[in-house]
Amino acid sequence: MDTPQPENVQTLNGVRVLICRPEPEATRLSGAFRSAGADTRTLPVMERVPLPETPESRQTILDLDLFQHVIAVSPYAARQLLDRVDTWWPQFPTGVRWYGVGASTAAVLESAGLSPGHPAEGFTSEALLALPSLQTLTHEKVLLARGETGRDLIRETLEQRGASVTQLPLYRRQPTAPSPEQLANSLDRFAPDIIIALSGETLNNFIALSENSSHNYLKSLLLVPTDRVARQAREAGFHRVICASGMADEDIVNRVIGCYPPHQTGSAPTPGSP
Fold first, then answer.
1. pTM above the 0.85 mark?
2. Residue 6 within any structural domain of the chain
């Protein structure tokens, strides 16, 4: 599902934004920022590689109707899961509750005709785990569609609540290897005012790749997804950190716009509280 472009056209004139998301999200978010007047560069520091189907993962999909709850942890996980389900199920099994960690993930599931649950506010594992339907899960089966690595909070919490959780790894996250010229263009020459890093892993990869840059990226305004990653950023030396208000492109752009009152466009931002 395409994300609506922000309505605040030409609000970020003169602001340089470096976007460190994987593709194709990086290019899509870049277009949203350009619509608001910003100058952008994309530097994907992580890529996602779909995992091949195994006999075990195939059987998990074939057993989909045995689960009471199916959770997708991200929009990419949701898309990968739907592709697998479409291969083996002519229609979705009944009696299964679907969930997305956040509205953007839920929107992917909705695009397939599902009616997923998701937090009314927030887009974190903690927000998902607060849903009433996930509180008492004795003897219930939960399928967790996710990457090969990541936080175990959802699995651990649901198991504590009595659930039997099956994890379905659908993709692998791995660092990219930008050339020295790409790094120089993105950091030294571009000198971003704002850096977008929407996961802790992305932030770590960016820091590792930028160690030899002459640009002092620690002085840039950094936008991260959650308070947890904000703490990680401050521990790494970033001084100006803000948290996204949502993971949709429009939410990210508007969060940055909120740091630039109209009379300050093109000058130093006024960050809100992370």
1. no
2. no
